[in-house]
Amino acid sequence: MTPSTRPLNRTTYDAAPAAPVRLIHLGLGAFHRAHQVFYTVKAEADPSDPEWGYCSFTGRGPSMAEKLTSQDGLFTLVTRSGDGDEYDVIEGIVEAQPANNVARLRELMASKDLAVVTMTVTEAGYHLTQGLEINTSSSSVATDIDALRGDHSRITYLGTAAGKLVLGLSARRDAGLGGIAIMSCDNIASNGNTVRASVLGLAREVDEELEEWIEENVTFPSSSIDRITPASASELARDVAEATGYEDVAPVVAEPFASWVIEGDFPNGRPAWERAGAQFVEDIEQFENRKLWLLNGSHSLMAYYGQLREHDTVAEAIADADVRSRVETLWDEAARHLTADGLDISGYRAALIERCENPRIRHNLAQIGIDGATKQRMCAVAIMNAELGAGRNGSGSAFSIAAWIAFVLGNENAANINDTRASEIDKARRAGQPIRALVAVLDEDLAANESALATITGHVEALTS
Fold it and tell me: The Mannitol dehydrogenase C-terminal domain covers which part of the protein (predicted)?
């Protein structure tokens, strides 16, 4: 701290009174703060008298909770565009808690004021099999089941998001309260069904009567979320201090663009997120696919093909004419299957190019490439399967799959495969037919389709020759 700066907290900053906790979030990170908290603050009818406060729990360690607690939940959102930076202090988090404070979570979920739980725990955090059944062979799930079958008041640790929600919903039922909404904000198609399957599956293992209560009272809206929020570089805090005069130990940076599309009901109310630009729809599927296939799909393609061409960031990759051509081809394939009213695919594509070209958002390709097996299954594989179903070969999406395979095959050190399925991927790339085996990691039916496999193989061979 310098003589010209002050620490950021509610005694040094002229903040509004802290709102009551009516929202919980699991997975406190940069995206949550730049998206759900941002929307909630912007949705307040009277910012000087806010009605909707978040208690946000970290996903693992206590670090971010400790940083935000030292600042009374305040943090600076830096909106970074080609025209410069905007600095806004965001006041929507009124309580930040470490992941292991399950007692506080249980207490809050048994409050009549609580309306919504939002989540960003990644797909792996739901602990589901491919058939959307709770994975009871997971040690984390098994441990939580054992704990939840005992005295809930004595539980001090739960390792899964579903376990924590079951604990809280049990307390809510026991308090004689009505239902709430639990909404996933993860990049997963039909994420409402995903969180529903996870919570109900775990509840079924613990208490079938609780499972029935949840089915009758709790809703699981689906949402499609979008805002590029790169990892904060070390110099961000310095920039904030110089621009605002406040020492912020937890700033976050994001692009100007933000989108939130929601489908579902909220039995105990919700913020008026539409006031901040959120869109409520009757059928979210194609809106989800627009985001997954166009934004996430192009990011994954660039992550692997861009790195193969020695680029480090999205802005560098999209400036490469060959990479951009591959992105446009992928988008052409996806667009054939995105026909619902209100999607505005041409406008969305134009906005994506502008976002990718933003020179002041350093979106690292290596970061995007993490957990590629899951991302490619949801994006490129889904597009290729749609194209195959329409009688076309899906060469553009096949190229994206091939770029991932070429990248994996080029990584001789298994430790460099930054993926929750790294051991499975490493085994596949060492198989007698590594291309087929790696495609099978993404989709076994696709790997068994000889024509599709030939298309992918041709691209891999061109990329690795």
Answer: 283-463
